[in-house]
Write a structure and sequence with these properties.
about 45% helix, 6-stranded parallel β-sheet, alpha/beta, about 425 residues, Rossmann fold, 17 helices, 14 strands, about 15% strand
């Protein structure tokens, strides 16, 4: 099939490359000419494991193309994905749909015949109806079928998630549109990926409900971790004890400094705004958002307490800046609030992250960025592991002890165990243990 993907960011680029790998003829479109030029040269705008090879392979095979010419791509495409950003709108927290609606207008202007227009962007309930109205109003001579097909990609594992999904959600109003989507995803039928068909508004809500539920699991285990610290329990034992229950499951039960990233913060907020618009309060989600927001700075206070209660004039080494490993995404990363709280308390920060430092620089002031974990720790008064990158899992602990001015290690991801820290003479603080 001939596919056009409007928006070559994280979701659009991964989706376009994977569809091309299925054998479809795909054009990824973006207004940013420099991004398109870089993609045509094989330079990725984001860090995602395996994406560069996938893009290169399919571009060389002639199945994947990059262009700024939306009109040309739309004219020949059978299926057109809208995969533009929907950030939180400044001032009220609603999802900013201006890019989605602008894309719909441009698609309508270029369309002829029958087109299937698919919203891949995360959008509130009712967005598909508005997209359909825009398309029909802007071009009454063309025929449009509007589908909601939300993405469920984890940063750092997006390609595998796309090719081996738990489910494919299709929100469509008519059988013809559903048939088009079945044909598009036919290669995944070999993997027995369940294709779940529903109404468009149900599909839109499914994406928000899924992210809100996962954010709730993270926040729940973080609060249990706080209780474990007070009563003498071990949150990892508790998490395993409840996670083996098939009704609960073990995923997203890892205690830490709070959730961040491009999805959970903005999507939980957007869900709350939708619930307010329809006067159906989501009180549980409200508490999840509030608890997570306060937790991040609380982790800064935890580091300060581990370093004797006062960090004024001291240097803190921070290992990990991105909200999770295997990505360069700094959006709403816990590291931002943690570092700011330490700086507010008078600390100097030395930081290292394998992929996130360039994107961190505009977000954080007065941070000394280092070329490796040991450089960051040299002469510091303490070190905190904020993101669980693999290279932090096997640190030379004796070297860590010798490099630090004071042997204090705060592990906000529970990578290590207290016994091994005690053996080498490191003062160790973790989460919920």
């Amino acid at each position: 099939m001939r596919v056009a993907v409007v928006g070559s960011g994280y979701v659009g680029l991964v989706s376009g490359a994977c569809f091309a790998d299925f054998g479809h003829d795909v054009v990824c479109i973006d207004k940013d000419a420099r991004k398109i030029e870089s993609l045509n040269q094989g330079i990725m705008p984001i860090f995602e494991p395996g994406l560069d090879v996938l893009v290169s392979t399919n571009a060389k095979a002639g199945r994947l193309h990059f262009s700024t010419d939306l009109a040309a791509a739309v004219k020949t495409a059978e299926v057109i994905f809208i995969a533009v950003g929907t950030p939180s709108r400044r001032g009220d927290g609603h999802a900013d749909l201006s890019y989605v609606y602008a894309a719909a207008r441009e698609i309508a202007e270029a369309a002829t015949g029958t087109k299937t227009v698919v919203t891949k962007s995360t959008v509130p309930v009712g967005t598909g109806d508005e997209v359909e109205r825009i398309l029909r109003e802007a071009n009454p001579d063309a025929s449009f079928m509007v589908v909601s097909n939300p993405e469920f990609l984890r940063e750092g594992a997006a390609i595998d998630d796309f090719k081996r999904p738990d489910r494919i959600v299709i929100g469509a109003q008519d059988e013809e549109a559903k048939a088009v989507m079945r044909q598009l995803y036919r290669p995944l039928h070999l993997n027995a990926a369940p294709l779940v068909e529903m109404s468009r508004c149900s599909a839109e809500l499914t994406k928000y409900a899924a992210n809100a539920f996962l954010a709730t699991k993270i926040t729940f285990i973080n609060e249990i971790a706080d209780l474990c610290e007070k009563v003498g329990g071990d949150v990892q034992d508790v998490a395993r004890g409840i996670g083996l229950d098939n009704r609960i499951g073990s995923k997203f039960l890892h205690a830490g400094p709070g959730y961040g990233g491009s999805c959970f913060p903005k999507d939980t907020l957007a869900l709350l705004k939708t619930s307010q618009d329809f006067e159906v309060p989501q009180r549980l989600v409200e508490m999840v958002v509030a608890v997570n927001d306060t937790r991040k700075r609380a982790m800064g206070r935890k580091i300060i307490a581990a370093m004797g209660g006062d960090v004024r004039g001291k240097t803190v080494a921070i290992l990990g800046l991105t909200f999770k490993p295997n990505t360069d995404d700094m959006r709403d990363s816990p590291a931002i609030a943690i570092i700011q709280s330490l700086q507010d308390a008078g600390a100097t920060i030395r930081a290292y992250d394998p992929e996130g430092m360039e994107l961190a620089k505009p977000l954080l002031g007065a941070v000394d960025y280092c070329t490796g974990p040991y450089e960051a720790m040299e002469g510091a008064d303490g070190v905190a592991i904020v993101t669980e990158w693999n290279e932090f899992r096997s640190l030379d602990l004796e070297r860590v002890r010798d490099l630090l001015k004071a042997p204090v290690l705060v592990d906000l991801r529970n990578i290590y165990r207290a016994e091994e820290m005690e053996k080498v003479g490191l003062s160790y603080t973790s989460i919920g243990r």
